[in-house]
Amino acid sequence: MSKLIVSPSPHIHSKDSTRSLMRDVVIALSPAVLCSVLFYGLGALVVMGVSVASCVLLEWAITKYLLKKPSTVGDFSAVITGILLALNLPYTTPWWVVFIGAVVAIGVAKMSFGGLGQNIWNPALVGRVFLLVSFPTYMTNWTIPHGWFGADAVSGPTPLGIIQEGIMQGVSIKELTAAYDYKSLLLANIGGSSGEAFVLALLAGFVYLCIRKVVKPWITLSIFATVALTALPFWLINPDVYTGPIFNLLTGGLVLGACFMATDYVTSPMSVKGGIVFGVGIGFLTMMIRYFGSYPEGVSFAILIMNSVVPLLNRWFKQPKFGRR
Amino acid sequence: MGGVHPHDMKISRDCALEQLPVSPTVYLGVAQHIGAPSVPCVAVGDKVKVGQVIAQPGGAVGAFIHSSVSGTVKSIASRPDLAGRCTTHIEIAVEGDEWLEGIDTSDTLLTTIPEDPKAIVEKIRLGGVVGLGGATFPTHVKLSPPPGSKCERIIINGCECEPYLTSDFRVLLEKSEQVVVGAALLQKAMGGVPCTIAIEENKPEAIDSIREAVSKLGYAQIEVMEMKMMYPQGGEKQLIDAVMHRQVGSGALPISVGAVVQNVGTALAVYEAVQKNKPLIDNSVTVTGAGLPRQANLLVRVGTPLQDILDYMGGIPEGTAKIISGGPMMGRAVANLQAATVKGTGALLLLSEEQTRRAPETSCIRCGKCADACPMGLEPFLLNKLSKTKDWEACEANAAQDCIECGCCLYSCPAHIPLLDNIRVGKGFVLSAIRARAATKK
């Protein structure tokens, strides 16, 4: 008989691995990816392809040649960063801008901190915000989805962009939002980045993640609740200047950010309580930036700001230890 | 709080208890319980009968050891036990199967509970009964609470929450009445406190059978409680929390919240010791593994070499990589098949290399699954790091000493970090520091 293994307990292990969890996230993102390619056409496919390929290649090259460590691209996390970055960009973004975004996301935000698990900020968001402040022209050239062989791309700023512009010119919110019924917001008949336009596809993916117990819904739900509750009083007091709760839930990168970026394991708190506080922070900051900031959209900044306080939240909000309450 | 839900893998659940033929030679260790090792009271060459005392308690926390066979004492010498440690074993060459007089080997159910609690505890002591849930703490000590503490409830632990294990299930099902009488005896021993028999919901037949026995026998204040399926529901502190909604503090005993927990197998042993004068000389052992030609729940005489059990089951199947004494979550991998079973042996589990493989460790992704899984509310990822950096003070501040080593953290870690392996080291250092402090205080 061959030799017996003697090692400490436990002797069995759950089927979960980093790779399987990340693969589930990729599966959850696939409806949104499919929608963006279907509705935005070839341009979205190019942005997605360049983004994913550069993220994976960069991580591979950095682990191999700079860190001289075994490659970690097999864990799919670079693929997710690539997808998320692409979903945050307009499909008209030139390939070299996408590549720069990938360099910042993977090279600066992820690998320079030591790779997966060590980064403080969500890599895709860092990449996105870097591009937003460096290449504002490319980053705000939104278009209404027109399909694969649509004749003319209709240029259409995002709803939040239109509103910010309109308010500055003294137009009331009612007139500005008249063009958007909730159906068109849900079904992506608006201008926006590849990801922010497909609310239903994103929500379907998120439900999948919750069912598979990859993420817990608390962070996302607390963001949604906070955005709605923060918007409500402003909107009730002066609906001419402030957009309403449902409009705010369905527009911008809120759904994408709340479902897929704020729930990133590495950059979110571990405990349920910490997660709820984290979500409240993101929701509140998002609304403050949308209402009072100079950018029309604030989800990215809100998440990055709250990412920074995650270590504190982990320290403050621990689950109670057994028998010590 | 916490816990994991591994597939329960109870593939031996339908195998009725069967008697394992007595081995030609048995080896009875003197240190098969928590506490002082017992002191042999037989000499080489002595003839012994089944049930005869062969070793006496070595201290206040100690237990009698009885011969599980009849025959001749061949040697009293050191040999490796299940854990691989060399301890004194009494080797007996088996001749026939002659039982000591006064032991009732009939199947007659004796339901009359003695009036005197002290007499019950004394009979349990004389029967060498120890906790069969895994810790093998001498039962009579557990039934003698220190002055100032008061037992308010007896809990009979029939959770059997570890995957694969089914020996308690078979005992609950096939010896329901004996278990209930055992529960009534324990209840009486503690002065007539209420008793809860806790069984996990994945054993509906056992729950029905025990309920029936309880109503048939009609003892006062014995209830059956259906527990949620969760590992480690059967952990002593977790079970008390689930049944009584009280949490035993760090380093404290269950009696501090008024609870005494006894395992199902222990309840049966108590019944046999008190009612039938039969000391603890055998116990039920699940022998299981997907590779085995058949599964079994065997009644095994204490001291049987593992090899004999495996031979009876048809030998070790091809592809067996690990043989575990106990369950897959907390059991101990066996290095030596010549080692003999002890009173607390509840299972032999054979796993293939694929079933027990640990994937290579990757970076922590801070998912928090280990903290979610920890039934003690600890932060395994943090204790892991503190143990690795040998910061024992921080380990203590973060309650490494509270770890019950259930394995949930390592089981659930998607990065396959050997969390528990490292935490055990930290826990060991913290516990010895706590003991050293207590010693200097005295």
- Listing every helix as H and every strand as E from the N terminus to the C terminus, the arrangement of chain A reads HHHHHHHHHHHHHHHH
Largest sheet of chain B: 6 strands, mixed
Give the overall form of chain A: globular
The CATH architecture term of the domain at 117-275 in chain B is 3-Layer(aba) Sandwich
Biggest β-sheet description of chain A = none
Uncertain segments of chain B are none
Query: CATH first level of the domain at 117-275 in chain B: which class?
Result: Alpha Beta
In total, the number of strands of chain A is 0
Low-confidence stretches of chain A: 149-153
Helix content of chain A: 55-70%
Fraction of residues in β-strands of chain B: 15-25%
Distance between the termini of chain B: 36 Å
> What gyration radius of chain A follows from the Cα positions, in whole Å?
21 Å
Amount of beta strand of chain A: under 5%
* Spatial gap, N to C terminus of chain A: 52 Å
Mean pLDDT across every amino acid position of chain B:
94
Mean pLDDT reading of chain A: 85
Strand element count of chain B: 17
Counting H and I runs of at least 4 residues, what is the number of helices of chain B?
A: 14
Give the oligomer, counting copies of the same chain as homo and different chains as hetero: heterodimer
